Sequence to fold (242 residues):
Amino acid sequence: MGGRPFFEFPTKLRFLMRFNPLWLIVLLFLLPGAGLLFLPLLIFAALPLLLGLAGGGAFARAPGQLWALLKNARVRANFVLAHAAARVLIERYGVAPICWSGENSFFLSGVSDENAVYEAAEQALARLKSGEDDLKVYPACPVFRALAVVLAAAALVVPLLALGPLGIVFAVAAGYFAAPYLSPWLQKLTLSSRGAKNCSVHSVRACTRTVSAWGGRLNTAESGVEVSTSAQDVIEAEIVED
Fold:
């Protein structure tokens, strides 16, 4: 018999079946060894999930902050002081800000009280100088959590590849759950409070700033308090009003 077939997929559904990249991922589970061929595609498809699990924009900005920490001793010193100030804020107010650092300042995202941040920074500096080296470890740090996820997943992905694409998923999931335990160890291993002890707090300022990651492809606005620092202890600290 001629004419139209008994059943025909709608036009839109046929287009999706032909061009939807998810069908390529389905092949990962059907063809032995195809996981390695489509590994970049799988990683790209998993990026939104990783961003959500690790804190969105904070995860995306982690590579840039890590690179700055490797290159610049002043950035490392401010990062340690930011961690110590965040620890003091948790002890006093139960507030856990996200810490970022630059060459001449650090930024605590998620807080707004300039006086509280100033006092926390001054107390953190005094406690670091008195020998409380553990203040440099901040378990909630998204930068080192992101690093921990990557390192743990990289260590596990090879032995788990025997499971196919699911092995990659398990490696990333294991890295995510191991990150809270691995991150403090990485901080103890790589961060030193020596440089932070030579800092002094110069000024604090509550502000909202726009930050970008991935060459400007991801832009986020964050509110918090910026703390300007100096390498000399002779500069008098002050609070700058908006």
Observations:
- The chain is about 55% helix and 15% strand.
- Residues 4-22, 51-55, 233-240 have pLDDT under 50 and may be disordered.
